[in-house]
Design goal:
By secondary structure, this protein is an all-alpha fold. It has one domain. It is 58% helix and 0% strand. It has twelve helices and no strands. It is globular, with a radius of gyration of 20 Å. It comes from Cetraspora pellucida.
């Protein structure tokens, strides 16, 4: 934010309404509390003393969890840095991120964030942490606030032909080689690769055309 000179534009409207901003602020409080559940249980004296977490650490699932966390954190960090560099160098609204990790996924930072969340076996309730993060990113403040608005932005910029080509070749979330992703049937993309219909924008459909015209007149 300090580098680009502005905050997250997705929440500009929220800042104009106290009730909306308060609702989102409370939601973020719940989000932070929920995703910290594994750490809360891990540091709980009662759980620590009863199961001897530190003594038991080293199983195959522990090692796998650490590997997933490190890989996810690296993917998220690298993706964020690549996007920051792109934004500081972009000279036209028609330009969009499609290099580095962004050539294999339209949202590698979200994929990294999801991957770096894992539960601890000390308490099953801690599984709420990754589940909540996944649901938030897939259906609330993550993908829905990025995908369609980005499609509409490119359409308004007169860049739909090139951008739709990028959409057809690039996985929505899970990194995958573009040459292999492009020929996949849409039902495979929608199911295995989580490219849900709520993310897609089709300027040829009546509903999407009305949505675009309505936003364009505001």
């Amino acid at each position: 934010m300090l580098k680009t000179g502005h905050g997250d534009s997705r929440f500009d409207e929220l800042r104009q309404h106290f009730s909306k901003l308060l609702t989102f602020f409370i939601l973020q409080m719940i989000w932070i509390w929920t995703i910290s559940l594994p750490l809360t249980f891990l540091n709980s004296p009662k759980i620590n003393n009863s199961v001897g977490i530190l003594d038991q650490f080293g199983s195959a699932t522990d090692v796998l969890g650490v590997i997933l966390f490190v890989v996810g954190l690296l993917i998220e960090s690298v993706a964020d840095v690549q996007k920051l560099i792109f934004r500081t160098r972009r000279t036209s609204p028609k330009e969009f991120m499609r290099t580095g990790l962004w050539a294999w996924s339209r949202h590698p930072n979200y994929f990294g964030e999801i991957t770096s969340n894992h539960r601890d076996k000390t308490a099953m309730v801690s599984i709420l942490s990754p589940i909540f993060t996944i649901l938030i990113l897939l259906f609330l403040s993550g993908m829905p606030l990025n995908e369609r608005p980005a499609h509409i932005k490119q359409y308004k910029a007169g860049n739909w032909s090139e951008y739709s080509r990028y959409l057809s070749r690039t996985s929505c979330l899970i990194p995958f080689p573009p040459s292999l992703y492009e020929p996949l049937p849409q039902f495979i993309k929608s199911s295995l690769f989580l490219e849900f219909p709520i993310y897609r924008y089709d300027p040829n459909s009546d509903s999407d055309r009305n949505y675009f015209e309505g936003n364009n007149n505001v």
